[in-house]
Design brief:
With 226 residues, this protein is of the alpha/beta class. It has a six-stranded mixed sheet with strand order 3-2-4-1-5-6, sandwiched between helices. Strand 2, helix 3 and strand 3 form a beta-alpha-beta unit. The longest helix is centred in the middle third of the chain and has 17 residues. It is globular.
């Protein structure tokens, strides 16, 4: 049986300064580095055989932590990258409802239809992640592997893995930084979520979402496992 551990990247400066990161290649924060220490210990005894990662630095640093006790080659896959935020890139979350009220309302209330100028449609992210992980799964039947990606990208894939259409994307919830989800696949590569968005390796002071305002419209207790 194929097992894939999906990991969201560590806290980065976009999370700290609360601006839209998307494809912006930000550095991991000091808290993010502490999160990575705990993540590395979590993966110490998990028998992973391969690691795939988004090429952005915050993801590659996280993949290095997952790999610390394994010494595996890391495969960087551009299809695992975060949504392209177009004109939202680098803009503070607090300004988005004022500058882009229509698009922000979609992001908040009808995510499946979100699209911003010069950016990537949410439906494209859903298809991209479904296809990328499907390809990775087909190449790794019978293995235990890790995939490191981003909050929005993983949210889309976990929606698909739950057997839901993109119209249920808002129900998935955000994961904390370095949170882990486990998905198992049968012989036909049909996914089954074993657990999702689990940040139990983090101490309360190292949680990002517990101290963040940017996703205050979310019910943090619903999906973020502590």
């Amino acid at each position: 049986m194929l097992k894939i551990y999906f990991v969201r990247h560590a806290e980065a400066m976009g999370n700290v300064l609360e601006f839209f990161q998307g494809r912006t290649d930000t550095e991991v924060s000091d808290k993010g580095k502490a999160q990575l220490e705990l993540l590395a210990e979590r993966f110490r005894d998990i028998p992973i055989e391969k690691i795939y990662s988004s090429p952005l630095k915050r993801a590659s640093d996280t993949a290095d932590a997952v790999n610390r006790h394994h010494g595996l080659p890391i495969i960087y896959d551009s299809e695992l990258i975060e949504i392209n935020g177009g004109v939202w890139e680098g803009k503070p979350w607090a300004e988005l409802p004022v500058l882009y009220p229509v698009e922000y309302d979609l992001w908040k209330n009808k995510m499946e239809d979100f699209y911003i100028e010069d950016g990537e449609k949410m439906r494209s992210v859903f298809e991209r992640m479904k296809n990328a992980v499907g390809r990775i799964a087909a190449e790794n039947q019978g293995r235990t592997i890790a995939v490191v990606s981003h909050g929005c990208a993983l949210r889309n894939y976990l929606c698909y893995a739950a057997g839901d259409s993109i119209e249920h994307l808002k129900d998935v919830g955000w994961s904390d930084n370095t949170a882990v989800s486990l998905v198992e696949y049968d012989d036909d590569l049909v996914p089954k979520i074993i657990f999702k968005n689990d940040g139990s390796h983090l101490t309360d002071d190292l949680s990002t979402l517990a101290h963040s305002d940017w996703c205050k419209y979310e019910d943090k207790s619903k999906e973020v496992s502590r």
